[in-house]
Amino acid sequence: MRCLLIASLLAGIVGSVSGHRAPVTARKSLGFGPVHAHAVYRSNPYQIVTNGFVPQSPDADPFEVARLFINDILGPNQVQASYRIRPDSYTDPSTGVTHVYVRQLVQGIEVADGNMNINVKDGKILSYGNSFFAGTPPSLIALTDSPTLRYPHREYCEDLTAELEKQYTVFASTQNEQTPLGSHKMSEFDASVGHLTHMHYSNCQFDGLADEMALERPQAVGDVGDMRPALLQFMVAATPKSEMVNDILGKYNEHLEKMTISGINHFTPEGEQTYFFVDNVPDTVNPVKANIAYMQIPSEHGSVELVTVWKFEVEMEDNWYEAAVSAIAPHRIVSVVDWASDAPIPVPDTPKEPASYNVFAWGINDPSEGNRTVEKENFDGLASPMGWHSLPFANDPSFKSVKPNNAFYRNTSTTFGNNVFAQENWEGQNAYLNNYRPDAGSSAVYDFKYNPQASDSDEAMDVAQSYINATVTQLFYTSNMIHDLYYRYGFTELAGNFQQYNFGRGGREGDAVIANAQDGSGFNNANFMTPPDGTNGRMRMYLWNTANPYRDGDFEAGIVIHEYSHGLSTRLTGGPLNSGCLGWGESGGMGEGWGDFLATTIRSTENYSDYAMGAWAANRAKGIRNYPYSLDETVNPSTYQTLDKPGYWGVHAIGEVWAQILWLVSQALIEKHGFSQTLYPPMPFENGTVPANDFYRPVVGKKPLVPKHGNTLSVQLVISGMKLQPCQPSFFDARDAIILADEELTGGENFCTLWKAFSLRGLGTDASVQGRTPWGGGIRINGFATPATCT
């Protein structure tokens, strides 16, 4: 009976909703992978113990320093181990730190989860992360499957099912044994473990069918080079549509024959992976990108083995997956990350007047906090040199005509520019170029009506759509403000930011944010897809049917900032070309937490207040999290050990614990350094130099600019920490990276302030965790100690 109820409960979870009165959207999203016990992160001189490496001269080539260090780490027995330094490695001009990203190679094939990130400055190693495979490599691509391997997908689903049954047993024991557990009781149970049931639905809904398919259709050894069976099996697990699963299973050979491989990409830069492209893959919206790789899989004996996998980049309607599936039949899904969770300049012939927008100005979180005002195009001379409405003809995907003679830039009169493409998306599809945008004409004045009125439920959507001009204008304005703000704190072209044209300043261009307003694919939600640098990020903002009239998420700045911040943290963690570092567990949770923290910091004022996330859109004073962010433990009691609670195994719940800890850190810095009325640095002079004013401390020599106040300093340390932390960081790694960022920026003057703030909620030096799982489970112990120098 218990298993029947569990199965019924799981079957009742739905992945998407439709209709104007739909509940909160629960988009199906896979996310899991192996937990590497051998991965390390070292962030201070006492931890960086080597075989013989010594710091080099301050003027030594940082990449050569990194190579010497890598060979030293690999040791004398592995000097011949192969690796490549990835092309997204870069030197941050604001800090002087060179971020070197390294990928392990075995027999010339990438170990997809074999990463090093090494941070170098003045010939010294500041910190490094290392998840290289350290075992004995296979002599050639393995054509058989070891029976001792613990494949993450099967383990994940078995453990998650067991955990749900355990939670049900606990719940049932609290009920009256004389009263059957009817539907109202089961709804109580669902409310208490809804995050687990949705995770089970997302990751394990068709797991059994996929396994059955693999065993029924074993692949011949000679077919190991054909990725199509592995890809079809992944689509069975990935699609949210039961009819699609039935179609794949019933017409397997038909689908296999329709899927064509278009060949490798011959234009791949030297030293980078080559790819195949698979067309006509069911339930995808673009050809699937594929390449062969190795992945590290734990065995039952505690060792780690390399498994040959096909790596896929799968773009679907609501997801954009980076997946690894074993190349040997029966195919097993090894890991999945959903990217959906940041030279001379040609001068135009005639100067362009800045645009103006009737919007809720920067700092007003939502319509409950203030009125709309007319704001100027506040582009930053460093972040957006040609403004928000100009981009080169050559980089404009919408321009199909013949450009004027000798013209370089195109000036647009709509919400379409170098940083952001903003438009409606009522159909909820992936097309965006021809979607509707407000056109201000030659006036460049985006002043449109916004006065929603209550109406009958059947007309609520029409009312919302009637003010689409104001909606898209607001989304365009907020997104550009975020772009310019994050740029000044280090999210530049080299670091992988979102721009169609990079002004010859490095990085990969062609990736402005596609920002969809009133997206028709759901209600009561928002999401951001972050593929690697050079491919457009995609933000989808939804209407919220939580009130009459509907509330438009585009008008709640905190939601837009949170979503955009997924692009920031994904591009900065592990390097601009690696979007797979924040997929699940504590890493995925921090991806949510950084967004909450930055959104809350941006709206905060000198007069301290607690803040709830998403309160206006959700029409709930407490917002969409368990607690508001607060200094008061009776208001928000979250500690590191809170992550062990059953309700805290989803990435959003994990994230709010991280955001709460960062909130305390920022308040400690504000208490020490004061509060700045603006987070925006001063505009640069015409020669590009930045005045210190009251924003930065006086410049000393070639030292980087140091924000003077606590709130600006906390934003800088958090963003700088993202660059210093390893791929798939833990709370401990991210904490240590922030403390290291302060060491590099201020000489460590906030060392004890930071440690004391982290320790307030259990993230002190004696905190620990055992048995961490891909969904965030484990046994954690709060630690409230600080380093001896801070006592």
From TrEMBL:
GO cellular component: extracellular space
One Pfam family here: Peptidase_M36
Annotated InterPro entries: FTP_domain, Fungal_virulence_M36, Peptidase_M36, Peptidase_M4/M1_CTD_sf
Signal peptide: 1-19
Higher taxonomy: Eukaryota, Fungi, Dikarya, Basidiomycota, Agaricomycotina
One term of GO molecular function: zinc ion binding
Keyword Isomerase tagged: no
Protein name (Swiss-Prot/TrEMBL): Extracellular metalloproteinase
Ranges for domain FTP: 88-132
Organism annotation: Lentinula aciculospora
Membership in a protein family: Belongs to the peptidase M36 family.
Cofactor binding description: Binds 1 zinc ion per subunit.
